[in-house]
Amino acid sequence: MISTPGLPDPVVVTASHWPQPGDDAVAGPPQLPGFVGSSFSPLVAVVADRCFARTAPMERTALVLVSRTGDLASATHVREAVADSKRIGPLYFFQSVPNAVAGHVAARWGLRGPVVCVSPSIDAHRAGLDEAALLLADGEADQVLVVLVEQATTGDTAVALLVSGGEQL
Fold first, then answer.
1. Domain CATH for 54
2. Of 13, 60, 128, 161, which cross-links 142 as Cys (Cβ 3.0–4.6 Å)?
């Protein structure tokens, strides 16, 4: 995990999460065209959309995608298909890296900042804020969308935090 001693924590401009009241946590987030068989990418997209519906992104907005486990559903599908000598669909290759959905969100919202994906072994929230602080301090972005996403048997969760370097937008 990257540490940012001496750098202030970014200021949260707006936040969103999955699930929230009214969401069907059992059915999962709305499907995302071009992504199949997993809630991982739709989770990222829905919390990003919710943040940007509240506050339009600046042009130099970076995206930091943070997940300790990654896309478990896709990884399980591919592992089982290989074990059973079955064909793996091409969309699974496309979505097998988190950069695919991060790029989708960046293109959809016209983000022109860096896209970074991290998989910390411990505190994902801290790792995301640390990465955002570095991007802001280095002048790589004016704001950063930090998306934390996890799939679990107890329920999928995602949080998006749109952060800035200190000025409330």
1. 3.40.47.10
2. 60
- Would residue 3 count as lying in a domain? no
Q: What CA–CA distance (Å, rounded) separates 38 from 26?
A: 13
AA identity, residue 43: L
Q: How far is the C-alpha of 163 from the C-alpha of 169, rounded, in Å?
A: 9
To the nearest 10°, the Cα dihedral for 169, 159, 38, 113? 30
- pLDDT tens for residues 86-114? 887 766 655 566 788 999 999 999 999 99
Provide the residue range defining the domain that includes 27: 11-164
74 within domain boundaries: yes
- What whole-number distance in Å separates Cα of residue 120 and Cα of residue 106? 22
In a domain, 21, yes or no: yes
* 40 membership: H or E segment, kind and range: helix 40-54
